[in-house]
Amino acid sequence: KQEVTQIPAALSVPEGENLVLNCSFTDSAIYNLQWFRQDPGKGLTSLLLIQSSQREQTSGRLNASLDKSSGRSTLYIAASQPGDSATYLCAVADNNNDMRFGAGTRLTVKP
Amino acid sequence: DVKVTQSSRYLVKRTGEKVFLECVQDMDHENMFWYRQDPGLGLRLIYFSYDVKMKEKGDIPEGYSVSREKKERFSLILESASTNQTSMYLCASSRGEGNQPQHFGDGTRLSIL
Q: Is B105 on the interface with A (CB under 8 A)?
């Protein structure tokens, strides 16, 4: 059974810093990996989706990488802003549309 | 843009009540999902549906049932609510072909007293 781990559980950085969030998974036979953002009391907003054949995806200040063989993905946030404060979740999907989520990293960007 | 709407943002019910959580999507998606989210546990799949009148159990179906009478609507039912079902409930939908990204509603925070 696929297990997804996100470390650290919480992270606090000063505004302007570049940062990396980590996601690891136990079964490399994935179909895609998705990074989500969740604001307090809200649902999930999809940020980036990486297909299993891809190595990375970029959107604005966000860059997500995927290394299937080592079971790892990173979400890089450049020039962080207070508005980036949220919980970031990664989720791994297999060929049967079964999606497994990590518990998330709670990010605080201090002004 | 895909819109997934959950009927209630906050709900308070009593132990033993039958509770209905409603979810509607407007993009003609075939797949719909119900998750619960608890601190430190992430999202766990309760039930999902690939088509009208079709349902499949997820990882934690006990104490829940679902109904999908129309393609756009997927209801989660707590047959007899218990305090351990206090949680954040998230509905999602996706297109049916291939393995498409899931789109989420804003969630329903349910408290069982």
A: yes
Q: Hey, what are A45's tokens? A: 């907003």
Kindly report the nearest CA distance between residue A81 and chain B, in angstroms.
23
d(CA B24, CA B70) in angstroms, rounded, equals 10
The per-residue pLDDT for range A38-80, each reduced to its tens digit, is: 998 888 999 999 999 999 999 999 999 999 999 999 999 999 9
Question: Residue B66 forms beta bridges with which residues?
Answer: B76
Q: Running DSSP on this structure, what letter comes out for residue A111? A: -
Residue A32 pLDDT > 70: yes
Question: In whole angstroms, what is the distance from residue B104 CA to residue B2 CA?
Answer: 9
DSSP string covering B29-68, please? -SEEEEEEEETTTEEEEEEEESSTT--EE-S--TTEEEEE
Q: In this structure, how many other beta carbons lie within 10 angstroms of the beta carbon of residue B102?
A: 28
- Cβ atoms of A40 and A107 closer than 8 Å: no
How far is it, in rounded angstroms, from Cα B30 to Cα B34? Answer: 14
| Residue in A closest to B32 by C-alpha | A97
The encoded tokens of residue B112 equal 């069982």
For tokens 């009391």, the residue is A41
Phi, psi of A82 (to 5 degrees): -55, -30
**DSSP state, residue A5:** E
Query: Residue B33, Cβ neighbours under 10 Å: how many?
Result: 25
